[in-house]
Structures are given as structure tokens and as C-alpha cells.
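TL;DR need C-alpha cells for one chain.
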Amino acid sequence: MLDTPTNDGLTEHESNRELTTPSQNDSLYGQEFGNELQTETPARLNHTSIASPTQGVHQDLLTRYNHLRDHTEELVSKLEIEDMVVQSMSDASPTAWHLAHTTWFFETFVLLPYKANYHLFDPSIAYLFNSYHETLGPRHPRARRGLITRPSVKAIMAYRQYVDAHMRELLCTERTANPKAVVELGIAHEEQHQELLLMDILHLFAQSPSKPVYDEHGDAEQSLLPSKFISIAGGLISIGTTDSDFHFDNEGPAHKVWIEPYEISDQLVTNGEWLEFMRADGYRRVELWLADGWAINQVEGWEAPMYWEHHVDGWYQMTLRGLLPIDEDAAVGHISYYEASAYALWREMRLPTEAEWEHAAKKGLLRQVDNVGWQWTQSAYHPYPGFRAADNAIGEYNGKFMVGQMVLRGGAHATPSKHTRLSYRNFYRPEQRWMFSGVRLAKDSCSLADSPEKNTTQFARDLISGLSGQPKVTSPKYFYDARGSELFEAICRTPEYYPTRTEMMLLRQSVAQIVADIPMHSVLVEFGSGASEKTRLILDAAPQLSSYIPIDVSDGALSKATIRLREDYPNLHISPLVEDFTKDIQLPLSTTGKPIVAFFPGSTIGNFTPEEACNLLVLWRERLGHLGHEVQLIIGIDMVKDEGTLLAAYDDAQGVTAEFNKNLLLRANRELAADFDIDRFYHRAIWNASEQRIEMHLVSCVDQVVTIGGYRFSFHKGEFIHTENSHKFTDGSFRRLCEQAGWSVSNHWISSPISFSIYQLRTLSPSQDK
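>> reply
TL;DR here they are.
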């Protein structure tokens, strides 16, 4: 949270500061800074030339500050001086103004309150470069920022260098008053202006008949995958942040919100879809538009998104890479709230509320969350319950704008990495569209076909079918609801359960060799990803991976893992799939033609019968081979070993495995209204030597009858439910399985003294595949 300084007298010097009135030579308007520039572009500042300790009191802040200021200068280094002083509209600001304003922010809110005897660079700066902090005094009108030709760009860069030197000195000095919170605010503030810079540069360049190119090598917006609507059950949820790390004040307090069942698109509306709206005369159909939106539409003559131009050969769009033909598969951008609302109504849908958006995003169900375009919500920008702005100038940062604006969520391709959070609330007026804004659709839920209720229905069918046979069986995939996933993680920490520790150790020892043959831009697909802990070893060792697709049946576990991974690997494209990996999974089309690396650790293949395991390996070979021109599978295998070690691993002394096994019955009670009494069953693990597998059973302690969904199942004392197999392999038996399924072993690694193996498989060539 922002811990604002207690001193509110930011417009007057503290009594212990002996600042002199700047002389003519000190002034931005003086001879020293008013001369014509000697270079065409401002020189980059070299902060390494400023004397400061290599290890400061606030070393992390200093590193972040240096990176921030360097990145801003990298952004403007592509511009000419003439580009930096022009204001293309009243909502935009000249680049030079951004450079000075962000520097003024650090000077005003950090250096003045926290650095003793700090001398202002120039007192006139506050009037020119204060944005909206009314409590700090009068300011230059926003719409006239383009008339500021003095101070020059060279003078503004000198101002930045002066403030940077003092900031670095401050961050290397021990102080009673800790400036960390307000420095973090200043960093986040300048990150916002880095995106604003690009917004304003694009708007400026779009006005030019020559259509200048800002960065011909800039990142294009990512191509889209086939979209789908995801159904989400309603209920009482929590939104807003409780994080103790930095966040803006408008992101809290966390509070409860009731939402009805809804459906939300997993990705953004495309240019091609928007063209259909235009062909349907959407911009001229008054019945689709809100009243104020229709009025602005008529005055402005809107007929397409901002920056679109119609030429004889079709539609083009002005971008930071210049004027380019419309890519129909890319996300539509630069859309106002009024346009987004009209489009949604035309599609007989709506925009999501910010609570719906945040809930879906936290569950890891959305693509294009924060790297394509900000997404309009239908929520007005109001304070959360319990919000109170700080009673000083910093309190004006967000609170004073909480009327007449609409909330956008997510982030854009121009948003600095790690700037946003899932609780981040951006806001703009509904008619504005020069920002990088897009559209994600939602609708009220008519069917929960893709919701947890669907899984519940399948769970009921499979459980009823399994208990109707002899012996009674269940599928181990139903172990892994949220509680089951937690218990399995606990099993992995028991002293008896060797597979996880042994495999992790083997992975650490061998990961460099394992990833050595992974081609550039490969896609990592993990089956049964769970918490994705082992995956991190692969990700850390293989920067050549471009994408990661974790697949798991547990929505809760997958959501938690995805959130953590996106924070830790911001440059990795992560597309989680809540799916049963034993089915014919449809992977994103973006994987087509890319090298595929499948990852299946944990010896989970041993949970299947030999026939099932072979069929699964065949399914993956065919599915992955169809998408990728090169496919490999990294798979963990538990080896045959002494019976005592095996039995202890599946029947630990703490009883965690027993609780994990019984949780299957509790899940049936929770989700299917079954009436299992778990105290009438006990956990049992046995070694089946003939099948070379551990079996887990739930054994009935008494004669009893259990009801599930209207079906009655009788259990005799001693009768059991066979809940899981864990086959163990020899090197020979596993190689035979691979060959039968059309895979060849290209390498393998084995641990000792407890034997566990990791195999690297490749698909057989046509001449080998018999």
C-alpha cells in the first residue's frame, strides 16, 4: 500500500532548506538552457557516471529506478526533436511534457519531502508541468501544453539528469523517513506515462499525411486462437487487492460482490468480427447506441475504429509500425466504450462487469489478459466500499476522477511489463478511443455446459458406472479437485513418498541435457500440470521456449499455478486448458508448425493399465504430430524396487495418503449429494507383483448401503473400491510400451539409490513406425 509522506507542505520549502532564488543562469529560460540544441536528438543519460555506492540502502529501488528512466529515454530516442514538442489534441501531451512531468513528480513528492537541503532545479517548473494536483497551486492549461516551446527539450533532459542524480543519492542514503512507498508510486506513475507516450506519439503520427513509422520492428499484436465462451457459476466472490505489495489506492479495499452465472469470451474481438459489424451498418443503427454515444457518433462521423482508413484495396490501420493493412485475425483496437457497447448489443451480448472480469482472470480462464489491449467493462469507475483517498496532494492521484469514467481491465501491448495486476483498474471517459483499448464480450448464462456442473455430471456418470461393476472402481482423475490437489502436494512432502523428491533431484541434475535439444520457439505442453513446480526447472533452463500450455482437470489448481507463473515468467505466453488430457484435446492453433515438447512428469503414466497407457501415448503422438513438425515427449517413470519402499510411499505414517484417498468420497458427497460415511471406509495399499503395480483401495469396514443420485450401492464388509493403480517399470518394459505406441527413446536418465527415470521420447520416423 502507498505510505504517503506526512509532510503536506510540498509547495513551500522546509525550514531547514536554505534554497536560494534561482539566478538567470539557474532558470530554464536562462541563457544556459535556452540556446539552440547542438544535436538532433537528446543524448542518453549515463547514470553510471554519477558517483554513488554500488550497494545502496534501497538497492532494489535504485535498480528499478534506473531501469525505468532508461526505458523512458529508449522510447523517445526513436523521435526527432520536432516530434517531441507538438500536441495533437487536448487529451494528448507533447513528449517533452511527459519527460518533464514525470521528473517533476519525483522532485515534488520524493526529493522535497525526503532529501534535506534539496534545491529546486527551477521554481517555474511546477506551474508548467503539474498535471492535476490542484492543492499544489495553479498550473498551465492542459489543452495548451503544445504551446510550451521553452524550456527546450535539451533543458528538460538536463532537468531529468539533475533530478536523477539527486534521486540516486537519496536511494543510497540511510534515512529515518523511508521514501520506498512514494518512490514506488513514482515508478508506477512513470510507467503509466510510458504507455501514454506511445498513445500520444501514435495519435500525432496519425495526423501526418506522410504516416511516419515510430518503430518498424515493434511487436505486432499477437495472433488470435479460436475463441470460446467459458461459463462461470455465480455466487459471492471477493474482488480488489489485499496484497501488501505496491498497488494503487483505487484497487482496494477488497470486498465481497455477488455475481450471477455468466459466460465470458476467453479472448478479444477481432478486426474481422468488427468488419462484420461495419458491413451490417452498425455505425448507423441508432437502436444499438447509447444516447450520448449516438450524439458523439453523429458529430464525429465515426464509421470505423480510430486510425482505420479505407483505401481502394481495403481497410488500413495506422500503427506504431506505420500504416498497415488490417489483419482480420488480430484484436480490434482503439475502440470507445460507446462503440464497444453498440457492438456487444449487435451481437446480443454485453460487456463484462469488472467483478466478472477479475473473477475469470484470477481463475486463469482468459487469454490476452494484459498483453494486447485494455478491455472495457460495463462498470462505472466508482470507489470501492470503504475507499478513502489520502488527505494530501497524493490523494488526488485517483480519487478525484471517480465520476463520469468507465473501468477498463487487463493491459495492452504497450503497457510496461509487470506494471499491471489482475486487480488493476484503468479508467477513461466513454467517448475516448486513442488508448490501446479492445473488447471482450460476456453474456448472461443460459447454459452451464462448460462450467464445473458439466464436470460434476461426468463425475456422476463415471462414479455410478464404476461402482456398478465388480470389482468396484473409480478413475483416479477425480482425486484432483481443489482439496485433492492440496492433499497431493502434502503427500509429496511426506518422508515416505520418494517419487517427487527423487524426480526433482534427477531433473535438477539432468535438466541441461534434457533441454539441450529443444529447438527455438518451441511450445511446452504439460499433461496434468497441477502446481507446475517441476515445470519451472524446464522453463528456467530453456529460454528458447515461446509458449507453455498447462493442462489439468482441476480448475482451481490450474488457476493458482497460472497466476503465479504469469508473474514469474512475464515474457512467456501461457495458455492454460482445463481439460481431461486423456481425451482428444484441441490445442491452440498457434502451436501449428512449431516444435512441440510434451512434458508428463510424476510417473502418472503408471496410473493407467498397459493398454490404456499405450492408447494414451498413441493419442498424443497423433495429436501432437499433426500440429508440430518436430515432437518430443519428456516423461517421468517410477522403476520397480523393493516392496517395503513402495508400500510405505502409498501408505504414509501421517495418514496423508489415506486422507487423499478418502477425499474422493467427500467430493462425491459435496458435488453429487452422495452419503458416504468416510469413517466406514479405510485406506489400503497393496503390491500386485504379477501386474507390477501398487493398488490403492477404499475398504468397507461394515456391511452398508450408499446412495448416489438416486442409485443405491451395497457394500459387504471387506469389499473395496479400487481407486488407483501405480504401475512400476523396468527399462525393458517401458521401452516395449514406447515402441508399441510409436515412440522411440532418444535418451534417458536414472537416479540412484532410489531408482526413478526420465525418458526423452521422439516420434518414430515413417520407416520406423511399423
